[in-house]
Amino acid sequence: MSTRTLNLDERLYDYLLAHSPSEHPLLTELRATTQKLAAWKMQIAPEQGHFMGLLIELIGARRALEVGTFTGYSALVTALALPDDGQLVCCDVSDSFTAVGRPFWERAGVAGKIDLRLAPATETLDHLIAQGASDSFDFMFIDADKENYDGYYERGLKLVRRGGLIAIDNVLWSGSVADPAKQSEETQAIRALNDKLARDARVTLAMVPIGDGLTLARRR
Q: Which of 16, 21, 127, 134 places its Cα 20 to 30 Å from the Cα of 7?
């Protein structure tokens, strides 16, 4: 019994992975491919992928939205968890990073579920709202430039239906959010959003210490 979350050393982390569901082989391959890139740390951890996939299934999501796709690992997680007629709209600005993941989406047979939009995410989200897509998404994952997190969240509250779920990554920011000496623009942006979310009556909230910290906000 423990009254607080355990710290995972390498042995316990390996045990956790060994007793988690088997990772889809294409997710494993994509993760290995991404780890060859200089920016590989932008990818979510496999246990976070398992967790997000389960959440998507639990809420019966059919339409999902992603802000920040990188090499497509989280998009593949989401698309695999969605039903056959599900749809995922991905927002990213990098053709080179997303190009890494697209062949994996094809090989997994889920490319038809993924609508990748290469443009600033605020533009894509505003366009969706203008098209009448408010209240039409079940799940949203935010994992992009931290300075714009608040703007993505506010747009997400319009696009995600009541009872839908917004998942926000990197909310612990490698511990920097709790260190007064850390004052980068990104750190301050995450701190400000965390403070806002903690008192936001529009959502039911849980901050989960998985990966680099994942906040779950269920729209009321």
A: 21
Do residues 159 and 140 lie in contact, with contact meaning Cβ atoms separated by under 8 Å? Answer: yes
HEC string for the chain: CCCCCCCCCHHHHHHHHHCCCCCCHHHHHHHHHHCCCCCHHHCCCHHHHHHHHHHHHHCCCCEEEEECCCCCHHHHHHHHHCCCCCEEEEEECCHHHHHHHHHHHHHHCCHHHEEEEECCHHHHHHHHHHCCCCCCEEEEEECCCHHHHHHHHHHHHHHEEEEEEEEEECCCHHHHHHCCCCCCHHHHHHHHHHHHHHCCCCEEEEEECCCCCEEEEEEC
Q: What is the pLDDT of residues 68-118, one digit of tens each?
A: 999 999 999 999 999 999 999 999 999 999 999 999 999 999 999 999 999
N-to-C CA span, the chain: 33
Neighbours of 136 (CB within 10 A): 16
